[in-house]
Amino acid sequence: MEAQPMEEELDLLGVGIGPFNLSLAALADRVPGLRALFCERRPEFRWHPGMLVDGARMQVPFLADLVSLVDPTNPWSFLNYLREHERLFPFYFAERFQLPRREYDHYCRWAAEALPDCRFGTEVTAVRWADGRFRATLATGAGTREVSARNLVLGVGTEPVRPQAFAALDGRPEVFHSGQYLERRGALAGARDITVVGSGQSGAEVFLDLLRSRAGDGTRLRWLTRTRALAPMEYSKLGLEHFTPDYTRYFHALPAPVRDRLVAEQWQLHKAASAETLAEIHDLLYERTIGRPIGSADAEILPGTEVAEALPGPCGGLELRCLHRDSGLARVLRSDAVVLATGYRAGRPAALEPLAELIDWDERGRFRVDLDHRVATREELTGGLYVQNAELHTHGVGTPDLGLGAHRAAVILNAVTGRAVHRLPTRTAWTSFAPAAPPALPAQGGAFPEEWNRAPSARR
């Protein structure tokens, strides 16, 4: 296919259209004169289609839409979506702060199909830096063409994680990631022993759906997790302040080793299941065993258990060689099918390879990202390269959270335009995450102030 002539230069090119770049497109839509284009290789907007299970709800309030926490009067808000679909009164009477996942997906598709700068079925296959501009090759069913842009924003999303322990089962249809759950659920029909691996929201929702759909058919269900307890997502009001711009700024200023340690320690802030889903699982098991022993539920929940190796069973099925982390005891479990609810991680898009040598990677091969979400690059690359949801290691647990999506998009938009297109708050949390700077010591003696030497009761 021959490349078509280069078109008009863009101010902003977005690669990928998930919720975060869609938020940027929605906010950019109201900026006069801004030349923007957002490209997605898929033919339409899809948000975790494999997990749009009936009854599943968002873990964030409806205000965590594309625009409202930055610009509540924006026509691409969820409330305006309800108005356009004549659903304001039903939503009002429903009195639910968290939306059904299917409704959030439909809302995003409504915006994606109407925003003029979004192009689906258009893949950015390569991006290079030449003559002071990003030069991107776009591929569609009609051929290829090139565009140039002053700024590039990567919003390609994350990739499913498949643990190394399951490498020997690659390609087996009865072992799949939870991201494919709805499309592959039918393949579980013949399984009489099903194992769900992973303690997060996806694992909880898959286990709950299987409990509902396989009730009474003799299927043995198992929920297996490495975490030592099925602790719920932290959802206290002050705990949620970790998902504010204030905490993002605090986290970004910490040394890299401290940031890496904190991300691992804070799993309950962003990787756990909701208390509501865990309660539904307990209620269902309780109802199922009325008048019968607890063990008659044909379901077991095994926290603190890690799959060390998964292999084809010698007599068919699958063999999971497990280790109980506290006791050190080994155990072999046999199952017919496994759903891996093992999360996602940021990937490096292949289209970025021509720029790889111009990016200043950190010692672990990750982006170095500043507070404006701009990636550090070599001096010769003077354009703005920005990322969305690829900066967990630099910006903390709020990175994948939809509640910070509009704020991050506004920060990027302000940086790209070089002006405050959106006025952003200076303080967003009651919590002071960083300690106040201590008072300066006297130059001559270096002694602490006299009042510090008094008893605590005297300093009140």
Structure, briefly:
The chain is α/β, with parallel strands linked by helices and 460 residues long.
Total strands: the figure is 20
Helix content: 10-25%
What Rg, in angstroms, do the CA atoms define? 25 Å
**Count of helical regions:** 12
**Fraction in beta strands:** 15-25%
Largest sheet: 8 strands, mixed
Cα-to-Cα separation, first versus last residue: 78 Å
Helix-strand category: alpha/beta
Low-confidence parts: none
Mean pLDDT rating: 92
User: What global shape is seen?
Assistant: globular
Task: Spell out the key features of this protein.
460 residues, alpha/beta, five-stranded parallel β-sheet, 12 helices
Please explain how this structure is put together.
With 460 residues, the chain is an alpha/beta fold. It has twelve helices and 20 strands. The longest helix is centred in the N-terminal third of the chain and has 14 residues. The chain starts with a strand and ends in a 43-residue tail after the last helix. The relative contact order is 0.16. The mean pLDDT is 92.
